[in-house]
């Protein structure tokens, strides 16, 4: 059977479904092929289940602290099955929403695994003829020490989708994903060890915010080992043994959160079909064009941080280019990234150390408690740090560890995008009492006239 489309998108994750909607908005008759579930890994097994379970831990913490606010409650007791049911309900609601959006935008959703064919894309026995293919297949986890996933050795997706609370868990890799797993499970009652081979957890973050996060993780019971040299993972019938730095410990499960690779397996690409970059990802230019005419690639398949919002933005760019529009380039130097621990860690741009290698910098740094709202909320832990260029006033980076840091970072990122400097931000009126006043004070501090703090 042959069918014709003006654009075929492979993969319906945050990259693919957004690309498909944008292509359809621009008048291209579009189909998206998904072999699993719409919403991709992000909605079904990664970002959303993770955040749903982290929310359970946050609510539990708040209830456990209720007496600080003068409220008498009994010790919160976790009903994991119910928490997991809520997680699944959240996932279902959001993926149904994506399916509805695709329908509303007249995108055909085709089930099956797609591979590239001579005239377009082959899905089972159907040939989809097309001149424009957008690849958005995402990424798959990499095993460590050649130990296959399964049973007691889990990837992050399987960890978030566990049906019951494990007694003990060893998390390998303290990037955002590993830290989130450690943060949630420790606060829900699991004994957690977090292993990181580098010298700090959240190695890409500024040490000032990463260290606050590490302290809070430790306070919630996570046993953190940085500089960990992992030598063995040995799954057994009743436990899995982990050997690191000459010591051996047993856990119910190990969660591997240490690296992913592009999911190109099902595409059945021949050698040299699409050029790859040094990291083994699909090589693309600024318009997301691959080395082959008529094929674009986006999201976790290509360079840049593996983040859902980055995938979506690249989807917009690819679709616009495919439709013949002059599209905007994506600034990879300032994509915001968030770790949804408690407190959250959010940042974009350069750390202080990286900025100092490039320019003369000013730092505006304030603890959260320098403004009023965190005390009202009972969420005083954290800081806001701005890194600015001393001579141009440009915001080079922002680093926040705070309650709702994920939301706070958007203001500073917006300021940078609209070419406001830290002195402009310092004169932007903020509502009182809000945590965002700490952003205002950090900007004032960078500008040399900190008022509160
Ligand atoms: C545990 C975890 C938590 C995360 N949390 C966050 C977060 O909070 N925020 C954030 O921004 N990012 C987060 N990420 C990263 C985020 O999930 C990815 O960057 C994002 O999903 C990438 O989107 P994508 O569209 O490229 O691919 P995916 O979401 O992986 O979707 C790709 C889809 O393509 C389908 N597919 C693949 N090959 C084929 C084929 N040949 N035919 C048909 N279908 C195919 C797959 O089934 C899949 O559904 C997290 C990742 C993990 C692992």
Q: What are the SSEs and their pairings?
A:
Elements: E1 2-4, E2 7-10, H1 16-25, E3 30-34, H2 40-45, H3 47-64, H4 80-104, E4 108-111, E5 114-116, E6 120-123, E7 126-129, E8 133-135, E9 139-141, E10 153-155, H5 156-160, E11 168-172, H6 176-188, E12 191-195, H7 207-219, E13 223-225, E14 230-235, E15 240-244, E16 247-251, E17 253-256, E18 260-262, E19 295-297, H8 308-322, E20 337-339, E21 344-349, H9 352-358, E22 361-367, H10 373-377, E23 383-389, E24 395-402, H11 405-417, H12 422-425, H13 437-447
Parallel strand pairs: 1-7, 2-3, 2-8, 3-4, 8-19, 10-17, 11-12, 11-17, 12-13
Antiparallel strand pairs: 5-6, 6-7, 9-18, 14-15, 15-16, 20-21, 21-24, 22-23, 23-24
Helix pairs in contact: 1-8, 3-4, 3-6
Can you walk through the features of this model?
The chain has 453 residues and is α/β, with parallel strands linked by helices. It has helices at residues 16-25, 40-45, 47-64, 80-104, 156-160, 176-188, 207-219, 308-322, 352-358, 373-377, 405-417, 422-425, 437-447, and strands at residues 2-4, 7-10, 30-34, 108-111, 114-116, 120-123, 126-129, 133-135, 139-141, 153-155, 168-172, 191-195, 223-225, 230-235, 240-244, 247-251, 253-256, 260-262, 295-297, 337-339, 344-349, 361-367, 383-389, 395-402. A five-stranded parallel beta sheet has the order 4-3-2-8-19, covered by helices on one side. A five-stranded parallel beta sheet has the order 10-17-11-12-13. β20 and β21 (344-349) form a beta hairpin. It binds flavin-adenine dinucleotide.
């Amino acid at each position: 059977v042959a069918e014709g489309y003006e654009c075929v998108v492979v993969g319906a994750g945050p990259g693919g479904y957004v690309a498909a909607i944008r292509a359809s908005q621009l008048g291209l008759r579009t189909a998206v092929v998904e072999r699993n579930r719409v919403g991709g890994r992000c909605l079904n097994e990664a970002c959303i289940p993770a955040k749903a379970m982290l929310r359970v831990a946050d609510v539990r913490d708040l209830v456990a602290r209720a007496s600080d606010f003068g409220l008498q409650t009994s010790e919160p007791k976790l009903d994991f099955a119910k928490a997991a049911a809520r997680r699944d309900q959240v996932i279902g609601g959001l993926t149904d929403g994506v399916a509805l959006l695709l329908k509303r935008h007249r995108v055909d959703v085709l089930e099956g695994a797609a591979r590239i064919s001579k005239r377009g894309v082959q899905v089972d026995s159907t040939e989809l003829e097309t001149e424009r293919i957008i690849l958005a297949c995402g990424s798959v986890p990499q095993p460590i020490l050649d130990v296959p996933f399964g049973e007691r050795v889990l990837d992050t997706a399987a960890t978030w989708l566990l049906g019951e609370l494990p007694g003990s868990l060893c998390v390998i890799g303290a990037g955002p994903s590993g830290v989130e797993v450690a943060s949630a499970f420790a606060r829900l009652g699991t004994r957690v060890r977090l292993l990181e081979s580098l010298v700090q957890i959240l190695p890409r973050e500024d040490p000032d915010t990463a260290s606050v996060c590490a302290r809070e993780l430790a306070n919630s019971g996570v046993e953190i080992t940085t500089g960990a040299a992992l030598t063995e993972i040995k799954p057994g019938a009743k436990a899995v043994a982990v050997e690191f730095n000459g010591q051996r410990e047993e856990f119910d499960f190990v969660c591997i959160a240490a690296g992913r690779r592009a999911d190109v397996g099902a595409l059945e690409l021949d050698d040299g079909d699409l050029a790859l970059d040094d990291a083994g990802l699909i090589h693309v230019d600024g318009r997301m064009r691959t080395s082959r005419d008529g094929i674009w690639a986006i999201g976790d398949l290509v360079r840049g941080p593996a983040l859902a919002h980055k995938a979506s933005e690249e989807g917009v760019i690819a679709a616009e280019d495919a439709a013949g529009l002059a599209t905007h380039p994506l600034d990879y130097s300032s994509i915001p990234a968030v770790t949804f621990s408690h407190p959250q860690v959010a940042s974009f741009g350069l750390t202080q150390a990286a900025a100092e290698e490039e320019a003369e910098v000013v730092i505006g740094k304030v603890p959260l408690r320098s403004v009023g709202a965190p005390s009202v909320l009972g969420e005083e832990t954290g800081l806001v740090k701005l890194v600015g260029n001393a001579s141009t006033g440009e915001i080079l980076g922002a680093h926040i560890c705070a309650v709702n840091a994920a939301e706070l970072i958007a203001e500073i990122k917006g300021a940078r995008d609209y070419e406001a400097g830290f002195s402009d931000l310092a004169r932007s009126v903020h509502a009182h009492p809000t945590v965002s006043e700490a952003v205002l004070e950090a900007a004032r501090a960078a500008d040399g006239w900190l008022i509160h703090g």
